[in-house]
Design goal:
Blueprint lengths: L5 E6 L6 H14 L3 E5 H6 L6 E2 L8 E6 L1 H11 L6 E5 L14 H11 L6 E13 L6 E6 L2 E6 L6 E7 L2 E14 L7 H4 L12 E8 L7 E3 L5 E6 L4 E5 L2 E6 L4 E15 L5 H8 L6
Parallel strand pairs: 1-2, 1-4, 2-3, 4-5
Antiparallel strand pairs: 6-7, 6-16, 8-10, 8-14, 9-10, 9-13, 10-11, 11-12, 13-16, 14-15
Length: about 290
């Protein structure tokens, strides 16, 4: 028998068949000397209170994400840079980040546990974005990590945000827009793409700066290198929002500065075959349809 394995499950709260899959996995794992737990919020929401634990997800050997790309993003936030591999099980429509479908879950889980010390699997590392907010008043600093993107956007309808953008500590431009997205290559197919940003292979390390409905002549995306430093300062009295991977994290006021750089940590995704990013894009947008 393989050594005991610790698995944490992060799950979508309303997707059908999630509870059945978790119970099936828990029964098999327990019978074979392994351990499964869930974050308390997820367990309670799904009526699986007996699996609830305050144990840190970073203690796991594997994180299983049951849902879609949103559940993956939440999983990455929970790990906060820890190199725990994530196995994404797609419980909805076609996802960019999920790896397998529900019928394959138990087979793949058993396969990984039995052979996890071997080199049979691929760890797909994805760049994370480090986002640092420095308050104009008081100088407080807050730091987040993002897998997809960070967005500074307007709070008030009918108004734009004004942001002074510097690159490598040198003034670049003042942006006037509904918002500005700073995305990773993984996030290039999310919000950034809907704002007409480029699609970038996740094998790259880069930062994408994409304005949302810019009120200025320069309306192009910028693709910056992974060692470059990007910073934005809120200009004027109009407040703005800062969102990380689709979740609002704080309000921004005049003079607040947000800096972006490639993080030293990466997200780790468990793959059973070489990732087919371009084929996923092809299927997502019906590029093979006549």
């Amino acid at each position: 028998m393989s050594s005991p394995t610790n698995i944490v499950v992060v799950a979508h709260h309303t997707r059908p068949d999630v509870v059945q899959l978790i119970r099936q996995a828990h029964t098999w794992l327990t019978e074979n000397g392994h351990h499964l737990w869930m974050p308390t919020t997820d367990a309670v929401a799904l009526g699986l209170n007996d699996l609830a634990s305050d144990r840190d997800p970073q203690d796991a050997d594997l994180l299983v994400s049951l849902g879609g790309d949103g559940t993956i993003l939440r999983s990455v936030q929970m790990l906060n840079g820890a190199p725990v591999p994530i196995l994404g099980v797609n419980m909805g429509t076609l996802g960019y980040l999920t790896e397998i479908d529900p019928p394959d879950f138990m087979r793949r889980l058993k396969e990984w546990i039995e052979k996890r010390e071997s080199s049979s699997f691929i760890i797909d590392e994805r760049m994370l974005l480090s986002v640092t907010l420095t308050r104009a008043v008081g100088g407080q600093s807050l730091i987040w990590r993002a897998l997809n993107e960070a967005v500074i956007e307007r709070q008030q309808s009918g108004h734009t945000v004004w942001l002074d953008v510097t690159i490598n500590h040198e003034v670049f431009a003042r942006y006037s827009a509904d918002g500005v997205i700073v995305a990773t290559p993984t996030g290039s197919t999310a919000y950034s793409m809907s704002a007409r940003g480029p699609v970038v292979s996740p094998r790259h390390r880069a930062m994408l700066l994409t304005p949302v409905s810019p009120h200025m002549l320069f309306d192009r995306s910028l693709v910056l290198g992974p060692t470059e430093m990007l910073s934005m300062q809120v200009v004027g009295t109009r407040p703005a929002d800062l969102a990380i991977d689709g979740q609002h994290v704080c309000d921004l006021e005049q003079g607040d500065q947000v800096s972006f750089e490639a993080d030293s940590c990466t997200a780790h995704f468990l793959r059973f075959e070489q990732p087919k990013f371009h084929q996923i894009v092809r299927a997502k947008f019906g590029l093979g349809d006549e």
